[in-house]
Design a protein that fits this description.
With about 600 residues, the chain is an alpha+beta fold. About 30% of the residues lie in helices and about 25% in strands. The protein has 16 helices and 30 strands. Strands 4-7-2-1-11-14-13 form a seven-stranded mixed sheet. Helix 4 (about 285-300) packs across helix 5 (about 330-345) and helix 10 crosses helix 11. It is globular, with a radius of gyration of 29 Å.
Length: about 600
């Protein structure tokens, strides 16, 4: 009897399981049917007009009476509202089957509302003016087309999860490069709009090279002439990619694309690609080439940090508003830190060069009055209104979450290593975030990041985070450096000092900015002043510096300036400035623990 009851119960359970599975499949199928079919055609028939021509095809069996097309106002990775919709023109909407025009209106700066009139298929056409080459905007000219989809393609409100296709009709003999999978010649597929918006396009007669790391194909495409060696770039990039793979244990993508335009400078990370800009002739000498490799390392490290290991607010994205986070110092500052770490580990730079760079970065921070006005978390949060809008007073009230973030990440790595006896490092923190947050589809918070660091350190790091991340305290560098047998050497010597950042603009010597509490700041000079003379002698940048070198702190000089076209004269008492900069050197007679920690970090003996 008990056996019969068990068999009946088992049968009922099996029938119920089949029902649930069937319902799940029905729900899934129903959900698929409610999503529209969206495709784009991007053309460039007249590159000299800088107008990219776009067709947007929308098909839905259950089309609502009204739909809203939204143009993003910013692009992930570049935290400023950029108002891409200002470049849209010649907008039209039609029923695709009958060709009749559909009524539409703009309901906000970046939203176009269309009355569908029962049409199940809609064709929208428009053009976008593209004449700004940055990694976050669009450019079309005689040489190429480069675009970010956030700055070109609408999404339908409520349908960000819809798949889409993009067909590109290149100009002339141009080729197409993007990280999206190609399903037909020059037709590319995105499974949702977040992926579409994370996949820039380069269309030109580019040069290219492919290479593999751990069996994963990587592609470099370059537009423009210059003094680069593409084979050497591929070889060196492969070393960088391998070092990143060693940190995380794997490459997180099936293929990767590097887009390089040889004008300007900068980079922007994407899920399976990056867009880079570099000067045509800035691949030589060695120092410039190392700067380029640093950019490559930075943007590729983002394939983990930011694109997969995501701070709290950075995904899923709100493309019409700011997405605030206090973690840009980790997203960008820690990534900047790993530029140098990876170049060191890959053998491109020596420990001496690495430490010289760190000393230069510390000097830049220590001469910036804004370090007492803004914390790392505040700089991260306010990026939307401050970082990309620098002015003459920024030096006095801001710090860069890149620059100070890099320094603090360096010190944090050392702190974790020393606290754990050399067993753990910042590498372990990022591996933890990758496995415990990205792979479990979670974003991390500032509290999560601190906990992960403390987990690896094996002790509390509250004092470190409270003072150097959340507050604006002066950093005690040597309290951390000493554990590795290192010492920060502060500047020495004195020379006469005026203060102010100057630039020679033709015959005009202009004050760009003036740090607080310098002689120029305290005695009346302004940013924007044109210095025309010092002690009655016509001033140029080189003459002014040479003249000041002959003076002593406390001497008086007369500075004559034009301010708003009015001639003015100021008597300035010169202050004093150090003649040498910061440096980092090894201590004498390091103990055994210092030698162990130094060797574990740099891979060589402490001498």
């Amino acid at each position: 009897m008990r056996r019969q009851f068990f068999l009946q119960a088992l049968l009922v359970f099996a029938i119920f399981a089949l029902f649930l599975n069937s319902k799940s499949q029905q729900d899934k199928t129903s959900k698929q049917h409610t999503l529209p079919e969206i495709s784009f055609v991007v053309s460039m028939s007249k590159p000299w007009t800088h107008l990219l021509e776009v067709e947007m095809h929308i098909k839905n069996e259950k089309m609502p009476e009204k739909i809203e097309l939204v143009m993003p106002v910013w692009t992930p990775g570049s935290y400023m509202i950029r108002e891409y919709s200002r470049h849209v023109q010649d907008f039209e909407a039609k029923g695709k089957l009958d060709g009749k025009s559909l009524r539409w209106q703009k309901t906000s700066k970046n939203v176009w509302q269309i009355e569908t009139k029962g049409s199940k298929e809609i064709l929208v056409t428009y053009r976008v003016y593209a004449n700004e080459l940055t990694v976050r905007t669009n450019e079309l000219n005689h040489e190429h087309a480069f675009w970010n989809n956030t700055a070109l393609l609408f999404y339908v409100k409520g349908w960000l999860n819809a798949p889409s296709k993009v067909k590109v009709i290149p100009y002339g003999n141009w080729k197409v490069a993007t990280a999206l999978p190609e399903i037909e010649p020059n037709v590319f597929y995105a499974e949702n709009f977040d992926i579409l918006y994370d996949s820039p396009f380069e269309v030109s007669d580019f040069k290219e090279i492919t290479f593999s790391v751990r069996g994963i194909p990587h592609r470099f495409v370059v537009t423009g002439e210059g003094n680069y060696d593409l084979e050497q770039i591929a070889k060196d990039t492969a070393k960088i990619v391998e070092e990143h793979a060693r940190i995380f244990g794997e490459l997180p993508y099936k293929n990767y694309l590097f887009i390089l335009n040889l004008r300007g400078r900068g980079g922007l990370e994407h899920l399976n690609s990056t867009a880079l800009q570099w000067g045509r002739f800035d691949f030589k000498p060695r120092e410039r080439y190392l700067d380029f490799l640093s950019l490559v390392a930075h943007e590729h490290f983002h394939a983990w940090n930011v694109k997969r290991i995501r701070p709290d607010a950075l995904g899923p994205f709100d493309y019409s508003n700011e997405n605030y986070t206090k973690l840009l110092w980790v997203a960008e500052g820690a990534t900047s830190y790993y530029e140098g770490v990876v170049l060191l580990r890959a053998g491109f730079i020596t420990p001496k060069e690495f430490l010289e760079t760190k000393a230069s970065q510390i000097q830049a921070l220590q001469t910036r009055p804004g370090r007492f006005q803004t914390s790392l978390e505040e700089a991260s949060f306010d990026a939307w209104i401050k970082f990309y809008r620098q002015d003459e007073n920024s030096i006095n009230n801001q710090i860069s979450y890149y620059d100070k973030g890099e320094i603090v990440s360096f010190l944090l790595d050392l702190k974790i290593r020393s606290s754990s006896g050399g067993r753990k490092s910042l590498d372990d923190v990022f591996r933890h975030l990758y496995n415990e947050f990205y792979k479990k589809q979670r974003n991390y918070t500032p509290e999560d990041f601190q906990r992960a660091c403390e987990l690896m350190a094996g002790s509390s790091l509250e004092d470190f985070f409270a003072r150097y991340v959340r507050a604006r305290e002066e950093i005690d560098y040597n309290s951390i450096l000493k554990d590795f047998g290192l010492q920060l050497i502060e500047p020495s010597g004195k020379r006469a000092f005026l203060g102010g950042s100057l630039s020679q603009q033709g015959d005009r010597l202009i004050i760009n900015s003036i740090p607080a509490d310098t002689p120029a700041y305290n005695q009346g000079l302004n940013a924007g002043d044109q210095i025309v003379a010092i002690d009655g002698y016509r001033a140029s940048n080189s003459f002014l510096q040479n003249y000041l070198n002959e003076k002593n702190p406390g001497d008086k000089v007369k500075i004559t300036v034009f301010r708003f076209d009015k001639l003015m004269e100021f008597e300035i008492i010169l202050g004093s400035q150090f003649t040498s900069g910061y440096g980092i050197k090894t201590v004498e007679n390091p103990n055994e623990q210092q030698q162990i920690l130094y060797r574990s970090y740099f891979g060589v003996e402490l001498k």
